Amino acid sequence: SGCGICTKRCPFNAVSVINLPEALENPVHRYGQNLFELFGLPSVSEGDVVGLMGPNGIGKSTIIRILSGELKPNLGNFQDPPEWDEIISYFRGSELQNYFRNLSEGNVKVVHKPQMVDRIPRYVKGRVEDLLLSIGSERTDEVIEALEIGGIMKRDISNLSGGELQSVAIAAAALREADFYYFDEPTSWLDVRQRLNAVRVIRSLADAGKAVMVIEHDMAALDAMSDYVHILYGKPGGYGVVSNRRGVRVGINTYIKGFLREENVRFRREAIEFKVKPPRVSDEGDVLAEYSSMKKSYPEFSLEVDEGTIYFNEIITAFGPNGIGKTTFAKILAGVEKPDTGKVKKNIKISYKPQYLSSDYPGTVDELLYEKAPGYGSNIFKSEIMKPFNLEEILDKKVEELSGGELQRLAVAVTLSQEADLYVLDEPTAFLDVEQRLMAAKAIRRIVEGRNSSAMVIDHDIIFIDYVSDRAMVFSGKPGFNGHAGSPTELREAMNRFLMEVGITFRRDKETRRPRVNKINSFLDRKQKELGEYYYLK
Ligand code: ADP
Ligand code: ADP
Ligand code: MG
Ligand code: MG
């Protein structure tokens, strides 16, 4: 599956590495015979946040395990692993030489926030406050406040939601005293506001002179917290190469363009284009479905929904905090839950992807697709579904054994393969890597446009939301108690309302048009807040 320029297997979908870099001769680490190899390492520096971006399976967590001292790099010699002396001299001339010398002598203190926070309760018992207060940091109150976790201090760690666990894990890492801080995917499970809280806490470590490294798939969050980025490319599961370090703006733009100029490596056939869409005139177009104002109550939570209209050929995104009723609304639209008052007026076919996915299926991905995905095997299916979601590589895997990201790709693919009028997708980017998010965004747009249908998409990734949205709806209220869903409106209007609550402003990158977070209190930030234009200036 190459583009014709080379014969190598594509590292991403529809992507080719044109040339193999020289570095490929000297791996930093190889897991074993015919196993994954890592080429190069990123640099760390005091006072900076260095971001790592790239697809899953390309070696990002491996890098952090090496730099945090959990994994001793074997320089490719897995049969007869080298001693520290040899490793240190391998890095002669680079700043990493000192780093590894100090690491090997136990002279650096590192803290590592692991990727899989959902595993924390297996190892850490007790209440949140037991964990956080026992660290005894002077910054305890400050960090708890910044992450807004004061309300869960008395809760048992085993009863925390994914988002709560993530925030507690970030707090625990940030409170520990160290020289080097490593954060592996700190925004999974978090809503937009929580992501920005995490960004601020991570940023504050670097501002206090620490060296910080972060792996992140949310490009807006990565952009807001990093000074530099390294892009990783190669063949997921096969080998990964660490690119040169770039300033964060240039680095992320380079990623979006898919071409590393200095290395002369193209890793995506086309750039991702962000278009600033003209506002959609809402009384134009044919109505696909309508709903009246609705109410839905659970014993401890109530949701109020303002009436809304969904037109043909549009993608509406829905966003807001966790625990505010977004999933409840999606279930009402999909007919899985009934509202207490009000109703959805529709006579349409809906295809729904729930937020929480079940991997209960006694067969392979291939078998599931054969059974559940109309058109499986056709050319259209291949180009519109199979390729963007990179299903080829997981066809023979058992559904029960898929990773979170693999299961997500499969679920979104099956949902989109149905002939439907309305696609309801609840958090389709969860567990997806940065490349898969961009591919999913494109695929959703293409399918909605191609089928004269519409989509309602709930998500927390601003770059993804910006790319797919025609219009948007904002959820607000008090998480866990009550929620209010506004009517769908123009994206900018919705974003302005939402960002005003979160207290941040965005501008657009001049080159790629992607949204970028403004620095708090910068000139633009102050000006936009004054004008009430939180999303971006026209
Ligand atoms: P990323 O964090 O970029 O998703 P990882 O660094 O976790 O990637 O993994 C890179 C590759 O190395 C993957 O293909 C993974 O399966 C493989 N790998 C990770 N740990 C081991 C290990 N202990 N033994 C063999 N292979 C491993
Ligand atoms: P979101 O998707 O915005 O995170 P949800 O719609 O999943 O929010 O949940 C909103 C609130 O409703 C939460 O406090 C949740 O615990 C509660 N809730 C959701 N479903 C049920 C249910 N079936 N029974 C009782 N409470 C529920
Ligand atoms: Mg990883
Ligand atoms: Mg939800």
UniProtKB/TrEMBL annotation:
Q: Which SUPFAM superfamilies match?
A: 4Fe-4S ferredoxins, P-loop containing nucleoside triphosphate hydrolases
- Which residues does the UniProt record annotate as the domain ABC transporter? 15-261, 260-502
Checking InterPro entries in the record gives: 4Fe4S_Fe-S-bd, 4Fe4S_Fe_S_CS, AAA+_ATPase, ABC_transporter-like_ATP-bd, ABC_transporter-like_CS, P-loop_NTPase, RLI1, RNaseL-inhib-like_metal-bd_dom
Indicate whether ATP-binding appears among the record's keywords.
Answer: yes
- Alphabetical list of PROSITE patterns matching this protein: 4FE4S_FER_1 (PS00198), 4FE4S_FER_2 (PS51379), ABC_TRANSPORTER_1 (PS00211), ABC_TRANSPORTER_2 (PS50893)
For this UniProt record, the keywords arranged alphabetically read as follows: ATP-binding, Nucleotide-binding
Domain of life of the source: Archaea
What PANTHER family has UniProt attached to this entry? ATP-BINDING TRANSPORT PROTEIN-RELATED
Instruction: List the NCBIfam families hit by this protein, alphabetically.
Output: PRK13409.1 (NF009945)
The name on file for this protein is Ribosome biogenesis/translation initiation ATPase RLI
Please tell me the species this chain comes from. Methanothermobacter wolfeii (Methanobacterium wolfei)
